[in-house]
Amino acid sequence: MKHSNEAVLEALRHAQYRQVPWPKRPRVFEFLRDAGLLETIRQRTPDGPGYHAPVDIAVLTARGKAEIVRLERIERLASWPDQRVSLYLVPADGATETES
User: Fold this and answer.
1) Is the Cβ–Cβ distance between 88 and 5 less than 8 Å?
2) With 50 as the cut, is the pLDDT of residue 97 above it?
3) Which superkingdom heads the taxonomic lineage of this protein's source (predicted)?
4) Which of 46, 70, 73, 78 has the most CB atoms in a 10 Å sphere around its CB?
């Protein structure tokens, strides 16, 4: 699948704040999980009357956390309007730490 830099950044931000239950995820989330930027964890629901099934949610991996920092740095550049619509390319391992 092909996604823009902007779509990837937005998806990472949603996962960062644990706002996306895995069953209701946008398509970009599977791409990010395959790239090693997201994983799923089981989150218990709040206690209360009746049964509440646990739900799997998307969360950032360490690599995903580094990638959101890298993309947010790029977002502050004057070239972001052009880069935001460009095709997102998953950085090679280690590229998120070494890129300036």
Assistant:
1) yes
2) no
3) Bacteria
4) 70
